[in-house]
Design goal:
It is a single chain. The chain has 3 domains: about 400 residues, no CATH class; about 150 residues, Coagulation Factor XIII, Chain A, domain 1 (Distorted Sandwich), CATH 2.70.50.60; about 130 residues, Sandwich (Immunoglobulin-like), CATH 2.60.40.770. A hairpin with a 6-residue loop joins strand 19 and strand 20. The strands form 4 sheets. Strands 3, 5, 6, 8, 9 and 11 form a 6-stranded mixed beta sheet that branches. The chain has a 5-stranded antiparallel beta sheet with strand order 7-4-2-1-10, with no helix packed on it. Strands 14-20-19-16-17 form a 5-stranded mixed beta sheet, with no helix packed on it. It is α+β, with helices and mostly antiparallel strands and about 750 residues long. It has 16 helices and 20 strands.
Length: about 750
């Protein structure tokens, strides 16, 4: 760096000693807001992490790994190293877990979101009731609820240790530029993802903190000179980090390289280097060796990874697809900064682009600083240079380990880079600072703005119940459908007010949105799911969706009678839509526990057997044929082409294909007539009238400028006399019988016996 020799005041001088405590205070305050805005079990795998704590607190020993893990609520987290859970189980045991016990209600439709992550949709892993004990409800924290929040505060405490280790590491790397230390610490403190993960029960922040301590002690070991005590301390810290999360093992590489450099550079003899290495290894084995030996002996999986291989998201399992390298690392980058809940609550793309620009600028600054250093006539390899190289190596090692892990399970999560978090922060601030001394302030300020506001524009809406409509909003709704859903006609739970697609038409493979509005009549004993089917001829399904009301946040068990609310439900139309038609929208309620539909009754109390409450025009792939001007004859709808069977036989069905060119939209629905006429008398001898496409594509929905293909059946009655006839087609109004437009002579037909 060009400012490497710049002498500044010590951070412990009167004017700056308050900065680190101020950063820590800011971090604790903002993380407290994240805790407040994050309902219980809404951190990644938080239910399983807390189940591990409960398992230990109730004296059951360590949870079993392998297949047996999935017979416990700990599930795949049983393979995790135990330090955080052991620590968190102490206060859990002291406060008790049963008065009252914590309640976990799984959202069966979690991870079913459709559409951009910026729109809340079943982002909640758990179902939350107003009486649950968490700060947002104003309920007293006792029993299992208190134990959960103590586990969260323990994670927050490790977040403070993470900041201290970041500060200490940066001070060792740049002892002559102390302001870099608090710049780097502030960057970590305002990382939105760090704040969020620090606010939930998880071993990610403890692992990041102890990894930071390990790198800090490694920097002390090199910068101040190795001693036996420093080597032993480094080994103990690294062992404690390994006992927290196995992925920290990637830091063994920079530690080994550091020892090699001490020997190869001549700073230490081989004997001394070997002694330090042994002391580090002994510290690791003393703290963590027993755990890995136990996992190896009991489960033949020293790192505990075998348990994750049994999850549904292990690569090779149905639905667990290996993403492209670009896709998975893009996801890692984005979720390193902002990815809340169980990874589904994301910011808009433009925000990630801003973060990418700042990251790229930091990388550019590092490259330019390295280039300037290499161009110096007598560039010296100082300890600072070695430490920067080791921090870079730490990032590469952790990234390589994560790449191997992502090839094993679907796990493109930025928090899995947190063992290298302090290294990343040091290098980013170094890159910015090497370009301009004010750049770290600008970049960190933007990130801080995101972090301070994210609880309100990302977290809070993601877990909010729908807002009931007021009288004015209710008055603007379409006339009520009036169907009532309930176990019996005398026990209605809800009335369906309206079902309205927000677009008139969509294409196969695209997203469609349907607004469904309800009047709450009563609570149900069990939560009912809302089912939406989009159905074509012969009950052919082209998309469907299940969700609890309120897009997962307003189950029928906590409904407030009298509420009127609307959900905007998003669905992805399947790619294999067979034909362009107006498809029916069916709405139903399901009791998942009984695997049955809830009965529907109309306003008179009669059962509703077919619950088609709306429709939408869906275009099949490559089905739209433009109607060119050369085909126009001036009429709104006209025959532009047709296909007739070569032979006609009495008593048989015959297939006709009519192609209608639509010059302009039609205001109403017309019927198609197909008449077989005597050429002399012009009287009909047979006819086959009916709506186009058997009623699945009404003329009022025909788009202007398109050609509509209508495949029709023409049955010839047995009594039709053989002979030569003329076939005419056209449109008419069913109610009045009035023809619309011209009738078209398609040609002569020879009817045979």
């Amino acid at each position: 760096m060009r400012r490497a020799n710049q002498k500044l005041s010590s951070p412990y001088d009167t004017g700056s000693r308050w900065i680190l405590p101020a950063i820590i205070a800011l971090f604790v305050l903002v993380a407290g807001i994240y805790i407040w805005q994050t309902p219980h079990f809404e951190g990644p795998d938080e239910r399983q992490h807390f189940a591990y704590i409960e398992w230990l607190a109730t004296g059951k020993g360590f949870p079993p790994q392998g297949d047996a893990a999935f017979e416990t609520p700990v599930e795949q987290e049983a393979g995790q190293s135990p330090f955080y859970y052991l620590f968190a189980s102490i206060p859990a045991r002291l406060v008790g877990l049963t008065n009252p016990p914590i309640i976990y209600r799984e959202n069966p439709h979690a991870f079913s979101r459709v559409g951009p992550p910026a729109f809340p949709d079943n982002d909640n892993r758990a179902i939350h009731y107003p009486g649950d004990g968490y700060p947002g409800d104003g309920q007293p924290l006792t029993g299992g609820w208190l134990a959960l929040y103590l586990a969260r505060f323990l994670s927050l405490t490790f977040g403070v240790i993470l900041l201290i280790s970041t500060y200490g590491l940066t001070r060792e790397v740049f002892p002559e530029i102390p302001q870099l230390a608090w710049m780097t610490t502030l960057l970590v403190a305002v990382n939105p993802q760090v704040l969020f993960i620090s606010s939930v029960a998880s071993n990610d922040i403890p692992a990041a903190a102890l990894s930071g301590v390990t790198l800090w002690l490694l920097a002390i070991f090199l910068q101040r000179g190795p001693t036996n005590w420093r080597a032993a301390g480094l080994g103990l810290a690294f062992g404690l980090a390994l006992l927290t999360k196995t992925s920290v093992m990637a830091l063994a590489l920079p530690i080994a390289i550091a020892l090699g450099w001490l020997w190869l550079s001549g700073r230490q003899s081989f004997a001394n280097t070997l002694r330090y290495g042994i002391l580090i290894l002994l510290g690791v084995l003393l703290i963590a060796g027993w755990w890995f030996a136990r996992s190896w002996m009991l489960y033949d999986s020293p790192l505990g990874l075998g348990t994750h291989d049994r999850t549904s998201w292990a690569i090779g399992k149905p639905g667990a697809k290996l993403l492209t390298p670009y896709a998975r690392w893009q996801d890692v980058f984005r979720s390193f900064w902002v990815s809340f809940g169980w990874g589904t609550i994301r910011a808009r793309v433009w925000l990630y682009n801003i973060l990418f620009v700042f990251s790229a600028i930091a990388g550019l600054g590092l490259i330019m600083a390295a280039w300037r250093w290499l161009r110096r006539p007598n560039h010296t390899i100082t300890v600072t240079i070695i430490l920067l190289a080791l921090l870079t190596l730490s990032i590469i090692a952790v990234a390589f380990a994560l790449e191997l892990w992502m090839r094993r399970v679907v796990a493109s999560y930025g928090r899995l880079m947190f063992p290298a978090l302090t290294a990343i922060a040091v290098l980013m601030v170094t890159g910015w600072y090497s370009l301009h001394s004010k750049l770290p302030y600008i970049a960190t300020g933007v990130i801080a703005l995101i972090a301070l506001t994210a609880p309100f524009w990302l977290l809070k809406p993601a877990f909010a119940m729908p807002t009931p409509l007021d009288e004015a909003e209710i008055a603007e709704l379409e006339p009520a459908i009036g169907w009532r859903f309930g176990p019996s006609v005398d026990e209605p739970v809800a009335e369906l007010i309206s079902v309205r697609p927000l677009e008139e038409s969509r294409e196969a493979g695209s997203m469609m949105m349907v607004e469904v509005c309800w009047l709450v009549l009563a609570q149900s004993e069990r939560p009912y799911s809302v089912l939406i089917h989009v159905i074509g001829p012969e009950n052919q399904l082209i998309t469907n969706r299940r969700t609890y009301p309120g897009l997962g946040h307003y189950p029928t068990t906590i409904w407030q009678p009298g509420d009127v609310f609307c959900d905007t439900v998003r669905l992805i139309v399947w790619e294999n839509v067979p034909a362009t038609l107006v498809y029916k929208i069916e709405v139903a309620m399901l009791d998942l526990e009984e695997n049955m539909r809830i009965p529907i009754y109309d306003a008179l109390g009669n059962p509703v057997e077919v619950a088609f409450a709306g429709d939408i025009l869906i275009f099949a792939k490559d089905s739209q044929v433009p109607f060119t001007t050369s085909q126009e004859n001036g009429e709104a709808a006209q025959i532009v082409d047709y296909q007739l069977p070569e032979e006609w036989h009495v008593g048989k069905d015959h297939h006709l294909t009519l192609q209608w060119g639509v010059l302009s939209s039609l205001s109403q629905d017309y019927q198609v007539f197909a008449h077989l006429r005597d050429p002399e008398t012009k009287k009909n001898v047979a006819q086959a009238d009916g709506p186009p496409l058997d009623g699945w594509y009404p003329t009022s929905r025909w788009p202007a400028g398109e050609i509509i293909t209508d495949n029709r059946s023409f049955p010839l009655p047995e009594e039709t006399p053989p002979g030569t006839y003329e076939l005419y087609v056209g449109l008419y109004d069913l109610a009045s019988g009035v023809r619309f437009g011209s009738e078209y002579l398609l040609g002569s037909v020879e009817v045979q016996p």
